[in-house]
Amino acid sequence: RPPRSTLFPYTTLFRSAQRGNPCAGLCQTSTRRTMNVEDIRAYCLSLPLVTEDFPFDEDCLAFRVQGKIFAMINLENTKWFVLKCNPDYAVELREQHREIEGAWHMNKRYWNQLDIYGELSDELIKALIRHSYAEVVSKFSGKMKRENPVLLTVR
Q1: 2: how many CB neighbours lie within 10 A of its CB?
Q2: d(CA 64, CA 102)
Q3: Three-class DSSP category at 54
Q4: What is the pTM of this model?
Q5: pLDDT tens per residue across span 100-110
Q6: Beta strands of the chain (E only): which ranges?
Q7: pLDDT tens per residue across span 62-96
């Protein structure tokens, strides 16, 4: 495999974009990055019915939808951002991007950690946040979804 520096700044599209994955058309790696922890926090909080708290200690900020965690970031080490993911898609993401790996201290089947200082595009990070949110919402009861139809607006 050629050194990573020779593969970029060209854009790499996922094979999965053609198979209808949630990030189709946005699943790109780009050398241009501007998103930081404050931008990630603002984006997560912009989603419907999202709250934030510190469930484990004063450093681990969690984002929840209806009480269920869909994203976390350690404020002492903001390099890694943790998101829930469909198990098959999680594996595919890890194969495609060295900035994405199984989340430390989490069930690696369902949780990825993203190196936000790597080469992932802002659009991909936002798409993965939406995917994580939608994964959590998909497990809610029909009653909860009917009572809160705004939950189904995020894809």
Answers
A1: 6
A2: 20
A3: coil
A4: 0.77
A5: 998 888 877 78
A6: 12-13, 28-29, 50-53, 60-65, 68-74, 80-84, 100-102, 111-115
A7: 999 999 999 999 999 888 899 999 999 999 999 99
| Nearest residue to 79 via CA among 129, 45, 40 | 40
User: Could you give the CA distance from residue 134 to residue 154 in angstroms, rounded to a whole number?
Assistant: 6
Give per-residue burial for 20-41: e unless 16+ CB within 10 Å, then b: ebbbeebbbbbeeeebeeeebb
User: Would you tell me the crossing angle of helices 37-46 and 122-138 to the nearest 10 degrees?
Assistant: 40
- Taking CA atoms, 122 is separated from 20, 79, 141, in Å, by 20, 14, 31
Phi, psi of 63, rounded to the nearest 5 degrees: -110, 130
Q: What does the alpha-carbon distance between residue 99 and residue 123 come to, in Å, rounded to a whole number?
A: 15
pLDDT level of residue 33 (50, 70, 90 thresholds)? low
